[in-house]
C-alpha cells in the first residue's frame, strides 16, 4: 500500500503493481474500493506488465475520509489531479468504473495534462432523480444528510447486499452520502457533454444487453463503444476475460 498527502494530514492511498509505462490508474465506483474490484483483472495476461495503480478516492477504501471535504465529482477530480501530480504521473491511462468513470471524465476536462486516454466502465453520464428505496446513489441521495448519518446508512448497507457492503462499510459515511449527492446532481455541463467534447481517446465498456443512452451521439464524438457479454454493472468482476480484452485494446488508441 502506498500513500500521497494531498493536503496536510489527508492522504490518498493505492495498491500498485510495477510495470511499464504509461501507467494505468484504476478508479472504483460509489461505495467501492479499487483493489477488490480490479485486482484479478490487473493480473490478467492481457493487462499484466503495465504499471497499475488501484487507487481509492478520498473517503473510500484505504484512503482518508476527511469530514470537511465536499465529495463532489469536481472535488474528487481535483484531489485526484493533486495526487497524480505528486506521484509524478502525467498522461496516464485512466480506467473508471461507474462513479469512477464520471470522475475520470471530469478529470480529463479539468486537468487534461493528466490524461492520456480513458476507459469508462458503465459510467454515470447523466444526472439522476433520487428516490427512497432505490439501490445505489439515487437511494442514498434521497435522504437528507443528517437522516442518512443517523439511520439511513444502516438501511442502505443492508440493501446493498453482502458483496457491495463489504467495501461500502469501509467508506466514510459523509463521503458516501456527499459523493452520492454529487453523482446524482452531476456536473455543469453534464458528464455526457464533457465527454462529447473531450479530445483524448475514449473507450466505453457496457453490458452487451444494456447499451448506454445516446449511442449515435457518442460514436459520432469518437467514443468507442465496446459491448461486453455476460456482465452486469460490475463488468471487471462479471467477465474478467472480456474486460481485459477491451482494456488492452486501448493500446491501439494511444
Automatic annotation (TrEMBL):
UniProt keywords (A-Z) are:
Hydrolase
What's an example of a GO molecular-function annotation for this chain? Answer: hydrolase activity
Q: Which residues form the AB hydrolase-1 domain?
A: 25-130
InterPro entries under this entry? AB_hydrolase_1, AB_hydrolase_fold, AB_hydrolase_sf
Q: Which GO terms describe its cellular component?
A: membrane
Q: What is this protein called?
A: Alpha/beta hydrolase
Amino acid at each position: 500500500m502506498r500513500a500521497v498527502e494531498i493536503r496536510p494530514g489527508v492522504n490518498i492511498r493505492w495498491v500498485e503493481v510495477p510495470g511499464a509505462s504509461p501507467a494505468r490508474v484504476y478508479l472504483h465506483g460509489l461505495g467501492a474500493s479499487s483493489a477488490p474490484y480490479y485486482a484479478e483483472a490487473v493480473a490478467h495476461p492481457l493487462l499484466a506488465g503495465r504499471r497499475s495503480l488501484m487507487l481509492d478516492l478520498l473517503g473510500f477504501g484505504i484512503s482518508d475520509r476527511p469530514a470537511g471535504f465536499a465529495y463532489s465529482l469536481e472535488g474528487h477530480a481535483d484531489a485526484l489531479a493533486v495526487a497524480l501530480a505528486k506521484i509524478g504521473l502525467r498522461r496516464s491511462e485512466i480506467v473508471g468504473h461507474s462513479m469512477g468513470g464520471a470522475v475520470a471524465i471530469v478529470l480529463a476536462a479539468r486537468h487534461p495534462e493528466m490524461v492520456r486516454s480513458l476507459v469508462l466502465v458503465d459510467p454515470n453520464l447523466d444526472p439522476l432523480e433520487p428516490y427512497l428505496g432505490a439501490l445505489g446513489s439515487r437511494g442514498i441521495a434521497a435522504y437528507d444528510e443528517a437522516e442518512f448519518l443517523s439511520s439511513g446508512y444502516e438501511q442502505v448497507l443492508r440493501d446493498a447486499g453482502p458483496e457491495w457492503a463489504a467495501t461500502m462499510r469501509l467508506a466514510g459515511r459523509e463521503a458516501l452520502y456527499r459523493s452520492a449527492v454529487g453523482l446524482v446532481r452531476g456536473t455543469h455541463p453534464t458528464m455526457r457533454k464533457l465527454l462529447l467534447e473531450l479530445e483524448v481517446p475514449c473507450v466505453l465498456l457496457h453490458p452487451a444487453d444494456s447499451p448506454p443512452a445516446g449511442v449515435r451521439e457518442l460514436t459520432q464524438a469518437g467514443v468507442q463503444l465496446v459491448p461486453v457479454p455476460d456482465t452486469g454493472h460490475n463488468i471487471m468482476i462479471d467477465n474478467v476475460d472480456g474486460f481485459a480484452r477491451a482494456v488492452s485494446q486501448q493500446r491501439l488508441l494511444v
